[in-house]
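Page 37, continued from 36.
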């Protein structure tokens, strides 16, 4: 049982990098030609997920300032990872001394950013708190809020983190989609995300075309138009490979929908469920898998301390 959970932690982090690298390769490409040929590099989605994991491990839980500083340091080291337009500007504000009370994104966008940058990196929060929905919501909000304070970005991060947590709890040999969605809906606040989850229940019975899925769930850079697409990609497919390929085939923000689908699917199927060919090609694989093992150890120690 313990071994299975540990494998799920590794699967989720490496799954994020695979979905991101595959999606980055095919961003803007109308047809996927060689599905095994994942891109050589992951992008900001994985780089920021790594920052979240590093900080949770270093601090043995969530520490706002530590995580914010880690985001800035990781960006400084690798500014070329194709970040969204907001975060680098927020990092510059932080470097000029404006740590403030968060909400720096409100200088850039009215009401804050509703981009998917908060949701794309939140997987490690869903892993560390997979058995604690209250902490998932609180820490997903705080983690996203460093750069994304719009309600739709915060709720998107919470829903994505909860999907990762439910995937940790799911039996990979017997995923019950309706139960999974029922639990996710119970967790989700009434509003636009709950509406999307209701639509997913219906869509799963209908076997719709990609065009319909994009029309109904979206494939964009907004959290509300990408988190539901990732959840659908996971639930409508039987294994890790088909989930991530499906996510990328939706087009649009392919690296991010790929990364989020990879985080959920990897947390469900575990590292054994990930094709060796993909796993072997991921940039910084050993480092990312090491982080997952360290995160698992933090979780085990939390359980002992309880
Ligand atoms: C390049 C109007 C808003 C908005 C608001 C739009 C990487 C803006 C990753 C903004 C992901 C974009 C992606 C992204 C992650 C957000 N009003 N428009 N209130 N809030 N937008 O800048 O980290 O790919 O057009 O916060 O969420 O792979 O440029 O960045 O695909 O959403 O970037 O929001 O981006 P940002 P992010
Ligand atoms: Mg990206
Ligand atoms: Mg993207």
């Amino acid at each position: 049982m313990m071994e299975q959970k540990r494998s799920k932690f590794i699967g989720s982090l490496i799954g994020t990098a695979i979905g991101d690298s595959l999606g980055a390769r095919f961003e803007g490409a109308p047809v996927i030609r060689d599905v095994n040929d994942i891109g050589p590099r992951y992008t900001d989605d994985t780089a920021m997920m790594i920052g979240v994991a590093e900080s949770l491990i270093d601090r043995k839980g969530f520490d706002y300032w530590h995580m914010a500083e880690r985001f800035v340091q990781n960006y400084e080291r690798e500014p070329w990872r194709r970040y969204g337009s907001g975060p680098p500007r927020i990092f510059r504000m932080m470097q000029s001394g404006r740590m403030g009370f968060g909400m720096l994104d409100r200088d850039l966008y009215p009401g804050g950013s509703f981009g998917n940058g908060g949701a794309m990196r939140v997987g490690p929060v869903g892993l560390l708190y997979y058995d604690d929905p209250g902490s998932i919501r609180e820490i997903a909000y705080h983690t996203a809020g460093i750069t994304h304070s719009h309600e739709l970005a915060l709720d998107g991060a919470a829903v994505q983190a909860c999907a990762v947590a439910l995937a940790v709890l799911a039996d990979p040999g017997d995923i019950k989609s309706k139960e999974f969605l029922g639990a996710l809906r119970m967790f989700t606040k009434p509003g636009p995300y709950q509406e999307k989850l209701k639509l997913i229940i219906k869509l799963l019975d209908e076997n719709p075309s990609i065009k319909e899925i994009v029309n109904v769930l979206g494939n964009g850079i907004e959290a509300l138009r990408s988190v539901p697409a990732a959840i659908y990609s996971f639930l409508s497919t039987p294994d890790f490979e088909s989930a991530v390929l499906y996510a990328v085939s939706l087009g649009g923000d392919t690296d991010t929908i790929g990364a989020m689908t990879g985080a959920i699917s990897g947390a469900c199927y575990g590292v054994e469920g990930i094709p060796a060919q993909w796993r072997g090609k991921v940039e910084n694989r050993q480092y990312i898998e090491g982080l997952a093992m360290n995160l698992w150890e933090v979780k085990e120690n939390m359980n002992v301390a309880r």
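DSSP finds 15 helices and no strands in the chain. Flag for discussion at group meeting. Residues 2-305 form a domain with the ADP-ribosylglycohydrolase fold fold (CATH 1.10.4080.10).
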